[in-house]
Automatic annotation (TrEMBL):
<keyword id="KW-0812">Transmembrane</keyword>
<dbReference type="GO" id="GO:0006865">
    <property type="term" value="P:amino acid transport"/>
</dbReference>
<feature type="transmembrane region" description="Helical">
    <location>
        <begin position="94"/>
        <end position="117"/>
    </location>
</feature>
<feature type="transmembrane region" description="Helical">
    <location>
        <begin position="36"/>
        <end position="56"/>
    </location>
</feature>
<feature type="transmembrane region" description="Helical">
    <location>
        <begin position="62"/>
        <end position="82"/>
    </location>
</feature>
<feature type="transmembrane region" description="Helical">
    <location>
        <begin position="137"/>
        <end position="162"/>
    </location>
</feature>
<feature type="transmembrane region" description="Helical">
    <location>
        <begin position="6"/>
        <end position="29"/>
    </location>
</feature>
<protein>
    <submittedName>
        <fullName>High-affinity branched-chain amino acid transport system permease protein LivH</fullName>
    </submittedName>
</protein>
<keyword id="KW-1133">Transmembrane helix</keyword>
<dbReference type="Pfam" id="PF02653">
    <property type="entry name" value="BPD_transp_2"/>
</dbReference>
<dbReference type="GO" id="GO:0005886">
    <property type="term" value="C:plasma membrane"/>
</dbReference>
<dbReference type="GO" id="GO:0022857">
    <property type="term" value="F:transmembrane transporter activity"/>
</dbReference>
<feature type="transmembrane region" description="Helical">
    <location>
        <begin position="266"/>
        <end position="285"/>
    </location>
</feature>
<keyword id="KW-0029">Amino-acid transport</keyword>
<dbReference type="InterPro" id="IPR052157">
    <property type="entry name" value="BCAA_transport_permease"/>
</dbReference>
<keyword id="KW-0813">Transport</keyword>
<dbReference type="InterPro" id="IPR001851">
    <property type="entry name" value="ABC_transp_permease"/>
</dbReference>
Length: 296
């Protein structure tokens, strides 16, 4: 075991974990506001990555960072339309029916993405700006810098907005009780639409940064599966828990890739779910989730 590579693995893990946290924040906000588990979060990443690709290549030919900025409001509109046309009519229905409907949304978005962009993997035009920083044996790539700065920065900004801004307070009120929020004069359906739009925008931002090295393609969906162990570990209703769990699992994956993958092939993909299983045996609501007592 070469411990000299430990700092490099930690930086790589923090970069990837910050993006996991960013995407999971949108997932957690949707769950808190509507109690809907968005099984299509991987497809949200896919659509977001393809939207950036669309603005990055002809006829727009925007630089990759600018294409990301232009794609964010489009991704927000996409999430808002999904909530308005697909999710809202299902609210209040049987839980199993809602789950099956979101799984149906997965297949629908897969088909639409393949129809619009094709099944082959694409390549972004250009790279993320920035020069690698070399500190001895430690190399901080442009992708790592973007992942850490954007992932952690946007996550902290979102947490601050939820805590201190007017819209953040209204979103928190809706997440606590939609009925009470309506009684206080808050436009709950509008807030729920904003939450779904935010979730899609965060997924687009995280998706393009995760796929920046390889380019957008259907492999991005597999990256979205990491949202589930991150959300469960941090607590399905905990925003700070999503950030902490995302960073932690990103580091664990990087360390397992560097030190365990050679002798235990496949451990990198399995270990986050093993950790979640062990934690849930002791804390069924995750590390930071709120315990609920249900009468039956």
């Amino acid at each position: 075991m070469d411990l000299s590579l430990l700092p490099q693995f930690l930086i790589t893990g923090l970069s990837t974990g910050a993006l996991y946290a960013l995407i999971t924040l949108g997932f957690v906000l949707v769950y808190r506001a509507t109690s809907v588990v968005n099984f299509a979060i991987g497809e949200f990443l896919l659509v977001g990555a393809y939207l950036v690709y669309t603005f990055n290549v002809a006829p727009f030919n925007l630089p990759l960072p600018l294409a990301m900025l232009v794609a964010l409001p489009v991704a927000f509109l996409f999430g808002w339309l999904i909530e308005r046309g697909f999710v809202r009519p299902l609210l209040g229905r049987n839980v199993v029916a809602v789950i099956m409907a979101t799984i149906g949304l997965v297949a629908t978005l897969d088909g639409v993405a393949q129809l619009v962009w094709g099944a082959d993997q694409k390549a972004y035009n250009g790279e993320l700006p920035g020069q690698p920083i070399v500190l001895g044996s430690l190399v901080l790539t442009a992708r790592s810098m973007w992942g850490i700065v954007v992932g952690i920065g946007v996550a902290l900004l979102l947490i601050a907005l939820l805590r201190y801004s007017r819209y953040g307070v209204m979103i928190r009120a809706v997440s606590e009780s939609e009925t009470a929020a309506l009684a206080l004069g808050i436009n709950a359906p509008r807030m729920v639409g904003i939450v779904w739009g935010l979730s899609a925008a965060l997924a687009a931002l995280g998706g393009v940064l995760l796929a920046s090295a390889s380019g957008p393609g259907f492999h991005v969906i597999a990256l979205g599966l990491m949202v589930f162990p991150v959300a469960i570990l941090g607590g399905m209703d905990s925003v700070p828990g999503a950030v902490i769990a995302g960073l932690a699992l990103g580091v664990v994956q990087a360390l397992s890739t560097g030190y365990l993958e050679g002798s235990l092939p496949g451990i990198t993909e399995a270990i986050p779910f093993v950790i979640v299983l062990l934690v849930l045996l002791l804390r069924p609501y995750g590390l930071f989730g709120q315990s609920r007592i249900e009468r039956v």
